[in-house]
Specification:
single chain, mainly alpha, 2 domains
Amino acid sequence: MGNPLANKFDKTMFAAYRKLRLEKVSPKTVNNEQTYVRALFNELTRLGEWTKGNPIEGVRMLKHKQSEMGFLQPEQMTSLLETLENSHNKDALIITKICLSTGCRWGEAANLRSEHVVKNIVTFVSTKGNKPRSVPISPALSNTMPKRTGKLFPKSCNDSTFRTAIKNAKIKLPAGQMTHVLRHTFASHVMINGGIFLVLQRILGHASIVDTMKYSHFAPDHLEDAVRLNPLAGIN
């Protein structure tokens, strides 16, 4: 956009910028940028620093294809864990188990400190939404936690070992997914086994139930209410 003055910025200018951006990035990325720009002007308005309305108010988000959401089957999880067990980096194995047991992100588990694991409860502090959340874990998993003070896992414990394990276990993942498949796997299997959406929302730390509902098709009874509760159900 050429760093325009705010009072010169309008929908036409943003549309031209958006068109250029689409040559390099995905529609989802452009939508995120639009959200940030709109939020900027909304905040300036709230602070009384801007009085001319939001210049991109009413600009529709771009339609984009939802990325495929993969998750691991039980036999794939077994193969992955066995591969990690045989790797040189045992911390990666523990982080993987934490992710599969709690639905946390890789970074949330990798940033755990000793004080974040108390009596089989893990508290994730470094979260995407900046809101701590606590999730129970099994005593067996708790006992495998590193016996270190302070940071449980070294900085070198990135996802490279996990990537290698996925490759060695011959697991094919949708494009763009790697460690995040662990979070999807947790959520998918919770719903397959009859989990409750509101509980899953709290465990995953979703700000909106809408984000959690993308797992609704895994619930075994998620469509049966259409038969049981429809207005004709009580009419003979």
